[in-house]
Amino acid sequence: MQLKRNPTRAVAIGSVTIGDGHPIAVQSMCATKTQDIDATVAQAEDLRRAGADVVRIAVDSKKDALALEAIRARTSANLSVDLQENYRLAELAAPHVDKVRYNPGHLYHHEREKPWQDKVKFIAEVAAANNCALRVGVNCGSVDPDKVAEGGEDDLGPMLASVFEHCELLDSIGFTRYCVSLKDSDPAKVIEVNSRFAEQRPDVPIHLGVTEAGLPPDGVIKTRIAFEQLISRGIGDTVRVSLTVPNERKREEIEAARTILDDIEHGRVRSVVDYGLDTLNIIACPSCSRVENEAFVELAEQVKEMTAYAKDHKITIAVMGCRVNGPGETDDADLGLWCAPSFVNLKRGEESLGAYGYDEILARLKSELDALIAERTGSAGARMEG
Q1: Rounded distance, CA 311 to CA 260, Å?
Q2: For 79-121, what is each residue's pLDDT tens digit?
Q3: Residue ranges of the alpha helices (H) in 238-345?
């Protein structure tokens, strides 16, 4: 499946480029103490070998920043530095990394009397002088206090107001080599806030992530749902899966991200998505420990083959492999199948059409599909070839 992509501009981060139709890049972050150069290099290299396109390192102090030169010399990973609260550390860090991330909500911590605009201009000038990209990273838990004070009933409004004005400032000074991130621990809010941003600024590459996603597998599932909804709409140019795992398992973030991206591309999703295509859309959740009958996998393939004749109709068919995701996640599909151990529940939207054996569900599905095509085309003679 050729996924549509928002027409974002290209942003180079070392040897990788995001936006402008380039493959979605996968990122992770070192959890080591930055001043422990051996440990940080080892983790950066492990993440790179696992497939990380960009590896982020935190910088909390001058000593952290000074450690970057030695780290840079010992890893070929594309490095991003995460400025925590002292924006001036960008000057020490930028010569040794490919990208600088700052949080608008942290800029007020140092030199409070100085306007935030001057601080951003400083960071941008340092980035430009050192061939670095920027990420404007907004988190739900550390939004610019001035924006929060402006209040309003829309709890995502302060996040959006903050990132919009930072984009406008960077654009006004001619620095366009940046992306943005808008993160929350609630996947629904991640979907909404990024959708609203992309609608207003489809030109700006977006870094997707669910912050504080937690332990796997739940953290992976929360992130997966947000990515499915956004990437299927063309939103997202680089991603990070944030998991609570020991340092030696950090590469699981990369593995999870790669799996999610591949599943979205091939329609193996846990939530019903709209790829924006005027063609048949068959989605099936990836097999997991919750699947109650391995025949689900074979059934998904049979559904794909049987429905090929309807490929030019904008209809979504969801095949879900368990009772956990099946009942609710098929509600948004035109036709939904959720698979129990010995039978398959057939649905049309939220309406249940009954339960059928694995050996009879395909014929019943075809009957409903033909009826739906006839209804939408206004023709009793809809295509009936098998």
Answers
A1: 24
A2: 999 998 899 999 999 999 999 999 999 898 888 899 999 999 9
A3: 251-265, 295-306, 326-329
